Amino acid sequence: MERRAKAATESGVLLLIAAGILIGLNALSALGGYVRTDITVNKRYSLSDGSKRLLRSMKQEMKVDVYVTRGLPKLDTFVRDLRDLMVEYKAGSDKKFDFNIIEAKTEDEKKTAKEAGLVEQPFGEASDTEEKAAVTQGFMGIVFKYGSEKDAIKFLPPDRTDGLEFWITNKIRELRDKGDDIKHKVGVIGGHDEMKLTESNLVPANMGKPSLQQILTSNFNFYQIQDVDLKAGDAEIDDTLDGVIITQPNKDYTEKELRRIDQFLLKGKTLAVFASAVNVKASDATMNASLNTHGLEKLLAGYGIEMRKDAIVDFGRSFRVSIMTQGGPASVRFPQMLDVQDDTRFSGDEQLLDTSFAAFFRIPALAFPFASSVIMHPEKQPNDVRCEGLKPDQCNFKLVARSTPRALRETTDTVDLRPLKQWRPKGEWGQFGVAANVEGNLKTAFPEGDKMGVERPEKSAKPARILVVSSSQFLANPFARAGNGPDMGQMGMQMPGMGGDEQLLQIAGPYAQQALTQTILAFKNTLDWLSGDTDLLAVSAKILNEPNLVYGDVSKPTFSEESDDQLKKRDEEMRQARKTQQRSVEIALVAILPILFALFGFIRWRLRMAARENVSLA
What is the mean pLDDT of the chain? Predict the structure, then answer.
């Protein structure tokens, strides 16, 4: 008994010492004596190095007024996180950034906030102990002042902290560029009935008519998007442009026009191509595709990128959406819309999505609708452009996105890609590249033949860069583009009897929710890559949510010659196998891990009790 009493006394003293240490550490933390360590992959809770470099690049000082509202637990937590972030901005700015926290309570303060563009908002929060919800009124926004420039983030939602640095840093960049007269000009080549950035093809028409260019202008207007008219090849491309973009054409490029693009690129410029051989017309609910590369294959082949005349459908990782059917909600897959994800099971020459590449930086998944395959031919370019002897992250001549091995290549002149069809896949199975990147001192794509009056060097004096995203509607919502009816122009109405497919529009909404944020972010990253300003890619990645778990077998299937009944049975077996794998993961996370943890604790407790029984105090 005496031994036990002494052991219990020693244990009690040790507990008191541990409690005292914890109390002391908490007291130091409350007084500001703490160190934050961000161990997340995207550094979600610490200021990016790119943001710090942006601040230090400013030629003038930036003053920031942060208008906040306190009084509710959710608001207080958000204000604390916002203040901590502002402290990091100030610390990383080399004394070029300063801020004030203002809780507007007087009429003069409220008037000043409204004059700066902020909007007074009601804030509510449900109470756990009372039936009524707590409600308060106030501001939650930021006013920026940089030299003679002034702008504001009018409202910050207090339930979202994951994208704070993204929006704040981009607003700082916008004001910095205006105040310091920094311009980023990018051209979009027109004149070929191409899919335009101004098209309202992102959401169903009844949800509004935003376009990709409108989103860029509203949120990232430090980019200047200009139309480029080649005038049948008679006009040079403006040298002041950082780069040019080609979107899916509907008319062929002439060789003289392609030579003008080659001429521009060999000046050390940048080219991004968002196009494939798969042509699907707007407002065509059948999604019947014709295969035609419209002459782009001639230009790209000269740089070592072969865009093939085919359509890729991927049964290993298709875009999926839940829709309502007569039998209830069902998960439907669309193999013609590749869901290319960063999957750690694939690496090297099998890597699905290169998330180290600038345009796709830290983006866990991207949709590639209506894709064609691309093949790399290093022999078409000089040795210093190729990748022999280089590590994968050093290579600038590579595929940066691929299908899974369960993809099929269809090569007929027309391909039936209608949604919700019963697939009877035939053709060449394999893993295919759908995006490629080439960088370096490139050789001309047209070393021989009539120059047609277009003078250019045999090789670029400065490094030139090319990105090919072989997806004809990568920059669109394919379901909205096919499902929306033709527009009556200024009337803002759809023409009856001409398009407007309800089923496609039902799918278009979930597609927009699941895929468009990543698509828009990839395009913004591409603009940064085009202009050579990739310092803020890590900031952009912070706006994305954590990726979902990846399920499913991506090995090659063997159902190409089966009957309709067999296909339906096989498809149901695949769905059930996927559900079984999901259920196994859920059981492991919910039950098995806690049981193992509890068992570990029980064993530790028994070992400690046994040791205490045998303790010797002599």
Answer: 84
